[in-house]
Amino acid sequence: MKNFNGRVLFLDRSDINTDEIIPAKYLTEISKEALAPHLLEDLELEGFTPGKDTEGISIIVTRENFGSGSSREHAPWALEMNGINMVVAVNFARIFRQNMFNGGMLAVELDPETIEELFQAFAGTECTGKTDFEKGTITFHTENGPAGSAVERTVSFDLYDFQRELIRAGGWVEYADSRY
Amino acid sequence: MGKTLTEKIFETHEIDKPDEKTRVLTLDAVFCHEITTPIAINDLISRGKDRVFDPEKIKAVIDHVTPAKDTKTAAQGKIMREWARRHNIRDFFDIGRNGVCHALFPEQGFVRPGYTIIMGDSHTCTHGAFGAFAAGVGTTDLEVGILKGVCAFRMPETMKIEVTGTLPEGVYAKDVILKIIGELGVNGATNKVIEFTGPIVDAMSMEARMTLSNMAVEAGATSGIIMPDETTVDYLWPYIKDDFENKETALAEYRRWISDEDAAYADELHIDVSSLEPLVTVGYKPDNIKTVREAEGTVVDQVYIGSCTNGRIEDLREAARVLAGRKIADSVRGILSPATPSVYSKALEEGIIKIFMDSGFVVTNPTCGACLGMSNGVLAPGEVAASTTNRNFNGRMGKGGMVHLMSPATAAATAVAGHITNAPAAGEQGATNEKF
Ligand code: SF4
């Protein structure tokens, strides 16, 4: 199973598409590694610096419809190659979500109110997330919350059986290879 | 309750049901090309799983950019070549034998009724014309297909499209599918399989049926499927003649792969083509359709005839009928890419290549080429192409270029006029008309 713990990056926008996650000009690359430096290269978002802000990040929290646009699997790979195996959002584009699970990565959907609360409490702070996959919970923690003191919040998420199995196996390749 | 053809294929190939809606199917064939396969191969290597489930069921081709145009495409070809050699994949098609995947593989007899097929390419739906379930997939699915010969799918619903009436002269399968996409919209068949049926489809050649199935994905469909019949058996006969006593027994066997009379469909659409006119797309979406008359006069810089949609021998014949004895406009660059070597050599034998060349076309080797704007005819910003291909997305044939999709006959007439226009009626066509 991949790592779903570590520093959290908050991206305060809906509809971040696969072109913003990894521009089309990198589709001729023949290795996933080559995608790493170009993650979110074309994302224009106030306060966000591509390259720098994704460094050392393990989890992204964002708004609605993450991963829309082209079905390219290069988008989850670009995340993976930067050590980001988990995205939390209100919802995802269908193919992007499946591509995440196929790669053994977590695409967690939470209701808009919870996402809003997470943004209020943790965006802009040094936030970390800890995932208990079996229980289906993520605990967000920061030492420097908006009021200056430490804040902690645990949220629950649901997955389908098949999605759970793909995560446990580390993705569709491993799942299929051990099973069929 | 009866079953659709797709349901029958799913049932007979199911090996697992990981949740209510998901089915894992065994695959009869995995097709590969050099754009999407190398990254799958490299990933398998890095996982220590550089294996193939069955070298005979994997078919591979270098078709998108061939001969290689730069270092990156050369490297893609090299990875494919070495992988095919390493795993003894005998049906590997390289320069001299290669052609556009979705034209080449059917022509080689690799597609049979009832088959399950995947490829890392969205137009894999083309092979549904043979009564197969064929779908385009992402890289991880392709990887698992190569490794294990299985693929997971959401159980799709079937949408039945019945095509009736009489096809007017000068109106082709391309016009029929453009009409259907115009009716459905680009998402109209999302997550569904389109089953094409009705007397017009029954009367079509395999080539024309492939044109229909090829563009099913342009309406969002997972696949386009057509029930096998005598036409299918005739087409496949050279490849199956040792398996069956005669064509009748082959047909009886293949008729297992048809939808039951009382099968349940998610949707049904009836299209009467009796008053259909030649059509073109305008703009950057394939469902934005106009008649050629409405688009008449739109000036074009390039005319491209080829691709997995319309680069087969019938398509070349239709275009040649219009071009015979004529010259294309000085302002137009005409490019013909026969889809496969056998299409190319048949076109040579029939004098079609000469007609194209005399009219002012350049003839390239079989390749995807200009279709996806990677080589052999990329457009400059602001340029306009008339094309027999299947996609007109912004930038498809080159950044800032505009692509109008149409039939080969319309494309040929457009090349002669220098602007979008209808092909002349049969009687007014070129000098060697009778020949085809
Ligand atoms: S001819 Fe065009 S649409 Fe067909 S496989 Fe090649 S690139 Fe894709």
Topology:
The complex is a heterodimer of chains A (180) and B (436).
Chain A: E1 6-11, H1 18-21, E2 57-62, H2 74-80, E3 86-89, H3 94-102, E4 106-109, H4 112-122, E5 127-132, E6 137-142, E7 151-156, H5 161-169, H6 172-179
Chain B: H1 5-13, E1 14-19, E2 22-26, E3 29-33, H2 37-46, E4 58-61, H3 71-86, E5 92-93, H4 101-107, E6 116-119, E7 133-136, H5 139-148, E8 150-154, E9 157-164, H6 173-184, E10 192-197, H7 199-203, H8 206-214, E11 223-226, H9 230-240, H10 247-254, E12 267-272, E13 279-281, E14 289-291, H11 292-295, E15 302-306, H12 307-310, H13 313-323, E16 333-337, H14 341-349, H15 352-359, E17 361-363, E18 384-387, E19 402-405, H16 408-417
Parallel strand pairs in B: 3-4, 3-6, 4-5, 6-7, 9-10, 9-12, 10-11, 15-16, 15-18, 16-17, 18-19
Antiparallel strand pairs in B: 1-2, 2-8, 13-14
Helix pairs in contact in B: 2-3, 2-5, 6-8, 9-10, 13-15, 13-16
The complex binds iron/sulfur cluster.
Could you walk me through the main structural features you see in this protein, from its secondary elements to its overall organization?
The complex is a heterodimer of chains A (180) and B (436). Chain A has one domain (6-179): Alpha-Beta Barrel (Aconitase, domain 4). Chain A has 6 helices and 7 strands. Chain A has helices at 18-21, 74-80, 94-102, 112-122, 161-169, 172-179; strands spanning 6-11, 57-62, 86-89, 106-109, 127-132, 137-142, 151-156. A 7-stranded mixed sheet of chain A has the order 4-3-2-1-5-6-7. The longest helix of chain A is centred in the middle third of the chain and has 11 residues, at 112-122. By secondary structure, chain B is α/β, with parallel strands linked by helices. Helix content of chain B is 33%, strand content 20%. Chain B is built from 16 helices and 19 strands. In chain B, helix 3 links the parallel strand 4 and strand 5. In chain B, helix 2 packs across helix 5, helix 6 packs parallel to helix 8 and helix 9 packs across helix 10 (247-254). Chain B is globular. Chain B starts with a helix and ends in a 19-residue tail after the last helix. At the A-B interface, helix 3, helix 5 and helix 6 of A face strand 1, helix 2, helix 3 and helix 5 of B. Iron/sulfur cluster binds next to helix 4 and helix 12 of chain B. Iron/sulfur cluster binds at residues 64, 100-102, 121, 123, 307-308, 368, 371-372, 389-390 of chain B.
